[in-house]
Amino acid sequence: MILLVEDDARIASFIAKGLKAEGYAVTVAPDAATAQGIMAVRAEDLDLVLLDLGLPDGNGLSLLRSWRDRHLRLPVIILTARDDIASKVSGLDAGATDYVTKPFAFDELLARIRAAMRTAEQIVSTELVVGDLRLDLLSKIAWRDDQRIELAHREWALLELFMRSPNQVLSRTQILNRVWEYDFDPGSNVVDVYVSYLRRKLNRPGLAPLLHTVRGAGYRLLSGDGRSE
Ligand code: CA
Asked: Ligand 1 centre from 8 Cα, in Å?
């Protein structure tokens, strides 16, 4: 998941929509306090941070320094209108992976995100594994029992979410918030529809079903280690 720290609601919504269209899960923090809150409880869910410098309650640079002081190694791309050399130097010296100035071309931002993630993945793992299911985070291809499963963008984001929380029940609202827009109609059945697409792709004759409905609560991905419902 990408954490987007950006106080300008229009820019945040534009970037978040663009990233989600590319299949990334995105969470937005409109100020430094929210970003620190997310970092405190969900740092392990994050793959990358896009960080604005001018925030209503502080400076992005102090956030970055505090993360690096705590040895958080995830890639951080500074995204700011400050295009002077001194700002770039202090950003990179504070531990930024890259520095992109506004206005920017979205394709370039995507390429820089991919580059930052490639570098990070060489340090961390490039795949998630749950039972006999593997998901390659770079190629976005899943494998079950060594059979390749092609996934559409939303299916991929949905599967990544489940694989990051194996055996945990995820409610429709949680899934909507993390994979779709925040303002998506909560009465929509889009989650159920995509879960059924995903389930069809994951099911293999002779192998236990992985994606289970928990009546009245949501869905969960079982790790296939012999547990039964
Ligand atoms: Ca700002």
From this structure: 6
